[in-house]
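Q: What does the assembled structure look like for these inputs?
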Amino acid sequence: MSLWEYANPTRFMQTSGKLLPVVTVLSLACLIVGLIWGFFFTPDDFRQGSTVKIIYLHVPSALMAINTWLMMLVTSLIWLIRRHHVSALAAKAAAPVGIAMTVIALVTGAIWGQPMWGTYWAWDPRLTSFLILFLFYLGYMALWAAIENPDTAADLTSVLCLVGSVFALLSRYAVNFWNQGLHQGASLSLDKEEHVADVFYFPLLVSIAGFVLLFLALVLLRTRTEIRNRRAGALISRERLG
Amino acid sequence: MPDLGKYADTVLSAYAISIAVLIGLVALSIWQSRRAQARLAEIEARSNAAKST
Amino acid sequence: MIALLRRDLILAIRAGGGFGLGLAFFLILVVLVPFGVGPNSEILSRIAPGILWVGALLSCLLSLDRIFQLDYEDGTLDLLATAPLPLEAAASLKALSHWLTTGLPLTLAAPFLGVLLSMPTEATIWLVTSLALGTPALSMLGTFGAALTVGLKRGGLLVSLLVLPLYMPTLIFGAEAVRRGAEGLPTSSALLFLAAITAGCAALLPFASAAALRMNLR
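A:
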């Protein structure tokens, strides 16, 4: 059974309808377990005190912010190459999820940064990259909203996603170049790659799983909405012509 | 509630905002889904009625 | 091809179209900044490279919707799409004419405006070099943004939202080059990245712009 069968909207609606409740329940379970475990049952960090608990929100949301964009990139390419409407609509559906994740990552990053750096915002390369990502999401969603014809909108937003991805990557390097300057050291970056102790690691994994499943549930739900909207639009056009 | 020490405000506000955003996103998505379902059902009913006349 | 280029240039210079407007805007912006930031020349000289670069960016934005709008409205764009000249080449020529009427004048005017901002004279050569290397990318990216939104009635603000994030790498490397040059630090890596971005744009964006135009013309 090939994944391409779900390019058929009817197939997609059938299967997603069955999957959605399961994924939702799993996602809620992981989120609740992960966050409660992390919030209530982990110790404080030596340096960061109880603020380390923010990690269970900050890391998963940051991961999803980026992965959502990657998913949008892939589905946009599939639309451009194979013209599967479900793919284009999935990209459109994912964008609000991505931007929400980006906002959570930014806000938790800023709040976490206040006691650590003494300021809510610092032009740390990582935070700055997420701010830029936020702008890319905004532009993508604005373009979808501005174009009337759904197929043209799908086309144009896909091209934007492609070009945007190249520049988002480029920005990452540019921002690192820009903030390597004389006054900022690596000590200011919330270094995720630092080895996270086991006691933090497992609740973090569960939280990440929760966020991934939440993303999946939301994208399934939202894509179904988009498919319905598209069908409604087509029926209305047919009414007008007939 | 664990003893969050001097960082209580920090941690709690981070959790509060994040959970609020997630709930908002979920609520919005559910609302949009219900609206689309209703709209589609109405249009399909109309078009079925038109076909059968 | 030359005919197309010449036609665009004449249109831009003649019909009150953006040629002087971009420069005037650049000047006004540079005059506004000290009012906003205070006349302290030490502060001004430190932010001058950034202000001039951001000013160049914003001035480029002003004339973007003109790139395809007139041609779209009178049907010339449809002709261009079906003409023997590849649409990718036409898009490149549009970008070139935009640069000749916006980016190039800005690059030449910048040193004079730098004086208003107490920019150290050592920085001038780096300012002009970085703008010369970077403004073509701004024109090409702007052309891409204009291609995406051609035919939209209120396209102006949307184009800015789409294009400004794409401008960021060029801005970062361009302004960094001037800042480092002003302090006597080596500028070669910044300028190299800047040139690489522009070269990459020249290689890839004509295809993206042409694709967007075709999608909009369908």
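Chain C has nine helices and no strands.
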